[in-house]
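[Discussion] Sanity-checking designs against the backbone

I'm trying to build intuition for which residues belong where. Below is a structure token string of 283 positions. I'd appreciate it if someone posts a full sequence so I can compare it with mine line by line.
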């Protein structure tokens, strides 16, 4: 996908439900009011529906993983606009490796230009810890590598419901340790490692930073957190207001949480309930 497509994907994902800010009205005072999509976003949503995509909450995970995706819809829209299939953004090199005791896949993207030894960005894809993979989120690390001149390591992780919480969090930290230990082998600087992620991946990224601090490991130099999951309170004004938002509303988020957590009480785990933490200093 082109750089334009990658940027559009970032924009698309910001419609996901966010936490309410201080001073918002009480949930009981807020009526459901789906955000109004602009023309470009509405075109993507229309194509997404036309491709046959169903609400997550109506599908089992195995079908949700196989159905059409928002990147599929973006590609259709860009093909219409460009009158040609959008090009995949080229990078200098891509290497597939595995990490950790479970031999989980990761993909190393070397930028077209950069200063050696390269800074390294460890990136975690989104998907509510249930869906998504390295291929679906291929455009983002490509664009991020070329935009920053850094090597991007896109790390997969075990997903629910096959692997419940906190499997993904354990994997994410294993990936971080792997990068620190192996950065020099692929041209990276282990002293200049950042973490990044989208949605569930954003949650993994900040948890990597927290655990690195607590275990006195080399700290990430930077965090790029794109709409990270930072809590599971579905009674906030934001959740109420955006309950019926497309493509992901309150029911969809509840679907993800149902499959991720073996015990509903785990949503209060500090790795999930980040907004309630008082120990985020020093990251």
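Best answer:
Here's mine. Compare freely.
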């Amino acid at each position: 996908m082109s750089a334009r497509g990658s940027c559009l994907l970032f924009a698309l994902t910001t419609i996901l439900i966010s936490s309410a800010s201080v001073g918002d009205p009480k949930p009981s005072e807020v009526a459901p009011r789906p955000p109004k999509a602009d023309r470009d976003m509405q075109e993507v949503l229309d194509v997404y529906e036309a491709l046959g995509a169903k609400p997550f909450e109506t599908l089992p995970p195995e079908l949700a993983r196989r159905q059409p995706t928002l990147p599929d819809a973006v590609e259709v829209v860009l093909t219409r606009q460009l009158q040609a299939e959008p090009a995949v953004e080229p990078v200098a090199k891509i290497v597939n490796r595995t990490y950790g005791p479970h031999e989980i896949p990761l993909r190393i993207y070397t930028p077209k230009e950069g200063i050696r030894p390269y800074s390294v960005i460890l990136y975690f894809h989104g998907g509510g810890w249930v869906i998504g993979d390295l291929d679906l989120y291929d455009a983002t690390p490509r664009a991020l590598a070329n935009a920053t001149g850094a090597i991007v390591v896109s790390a997969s992780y075990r997903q629910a419901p096959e692997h419940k919480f906190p499997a993904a969090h354990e994997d994410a930290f294993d990936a971080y340790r792997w990068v620190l230990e192996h950065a020099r082998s692929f041209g990276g600087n282990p002293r200049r490692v950042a973490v990044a992620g989208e949605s569930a991946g954003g949650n993994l990224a900040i948890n990597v930073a927290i655990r690195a601090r607590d275990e006195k490991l080399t700290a990430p130099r930077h965090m790029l957190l794109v709409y990270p999951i930072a809590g599971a309170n579905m009674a906030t004004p934001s959740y109420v207001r955006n309950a019926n938002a497309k493509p992901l509303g309150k029911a969809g988020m509840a679907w993800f949480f149902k499959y991720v957590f073996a015990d509903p009480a785990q949503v209060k785990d500090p790795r999930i309930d980040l907004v309630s933490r008082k120990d985020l200093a020093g990251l």
